[in-house]
Amino acid sequence: MIFENITILDEDIKVRENMYVGIKEEKIEYVGREKPEEDYGEVYDGRNRLLMPAFYNAHAHSPMMLMRGYGENLALSDWLNTKIFPFEDRLYSEAVYYSTLLAMAESVRFGIVSSSDMYYFCEDMARAVIDSGAKANISRSITSFEPGSVKKDPRYLEAMELVKNFHGADDGKILIDASVHAEYTNTEESIKDVADFAKEYGVNMHVHISETQSEHEECKERHGGKTPVRLMNDLGVFDTNATAAHCVWLEDEDMDILQEKGVTVASCPVSNLKLASGVCNVPELLKRNINVAIGTDSVASNNSLNFIEEMKFFALLNKERRRDPKLITPEQTIHAATYAGALAQGRPDCGRIKEGSRADLIVLDISQPHMRPVHSMTTNVVYSASGSDVILTMADGKVLYKDGNFLTIDIEKTIAETEAACGRILTELQL
């Protein structure tokens, strides 16, 4: 495919108009103002269109599509213990497959091509992502309250098999990460076991960190004043490429550790607002050159995967919180949504419109009234655009969504199967 006469956000997030972008197989082969001699096949008319890197969701729980709108108006601990955990206890393979497939449909509809997913029934998740044509970093979240090693725990063994069977699957679209759920759901020994596992297999790490003030302070009480970041670091969690989700209640020393260890922070602004957890101090993290990406968390706590909406909250919240309208530029926001997320996932050849990069791209319709006039295209993308403006989503050079049509997913069947699974679980909960 070749995009002709299209406005793009280039590798430096600079606006360039009337460009040609040629795609060959899974990569961007040509970017330039002159029409190339090479025949790239299908021609895409780019007039009144913006081509930009696709989005990378740095923290997600895709199968929780089943719980959208279930358990509203509750604090995190109540939400988890009274609603989410009982529902999750009744999950089964087919339910997870179709709910993940529905998450992929919503993702590509809103321009997300790859998600960092932490959950279980991970083989079913991987199958769904492969069938959708999207990408994912999938981790089997480990929780353990029992003393002793978890190396013989079925969950640990499942994670090990997942790495062996799926890491690098589908030409690298599927990557497997290691994961401990959080400090408050694990013993020190279980955390160390999983950290050692990540180093042994050379995979990324994914963990919840300091999402709420109570989590942060109670960790210090349990561990002799150590914060979740300090504890995880001491146990080796950050000795591999790691993503720390939320990071709302970080202290200065925590930020020093994250900077030193090269940890990505996945900020989840909408979920943190909805659960009244607080606001991640993104400006301070950026000042320290910490890689900050954007996550949606699950639709049970969001309640959508509308990534442009997520970007707007990401850009706005700290302006109000710190009383400084200069904080977090549109360019910083777009970087967090694209290349920063790709780096977090260990995909450095993704997330930019650059010759040689993988063709993970989206097209926005910029002809709509809410996108005009244009004083700054990047400003319009972050503050004026809507998720519905995404009219094409491409992963590794393959179009997954175009003009309202899902090209790899039977959306009617996927919705029907997900709703049937939800109904079955709700019935069991009422028995």
Could you give the topology of this structure?
Blueprint: E1 2-9, E2 15-24, E3 27-32, E4 43-45, E5 49-53, E6 55-60, H1 76-88, H2 93-109, E7 112-119, H3 122-132, E8 135-140, H4 154-166, E9 174-180, H5 188-201, E10 205-209, H6 213-222, H7 228-234, E11 242-246, H8 252-261, E12 264-267, H9 269-274, H10 282-287, E13 292-294, H11 307-321, H12 330-337, H13 339-344, E14 361-365, H14 377-383, E15 390-395, E16 398-402, E17 405-406, H15 411-430
Parallel strand pairs: 1-4, 1-5, 6-7, 7-8, 8-9, 9-10, 10-11, 11-12, 12-13
Antiparallel strand pairs: 1-2, 2-3, 5-14, 14-15, 15-16, 16-17
Helix pairs in contact: 2-3, 2-15, 7-8, 11-12, 12-14
Helical amount? 25-40%
Mean pLDDT over all positions:
97
Shape designation: globular
User: Which structural category do the helix and sheet elements fall into?
Assistant: alpha/beta
Proportion of β residues?
15-25%
Query: What low-confidence regions span 5 or more consecutive residues with pLDDT below 50?
Result: none
Report the sheet with the most strands, covering strand number, pairing sense and barrel closure. 9 strands, mixed
The total strand number stands at: 17
Measure the end-to-end span.
54 Å
Q: What is the helix tally? A: 15
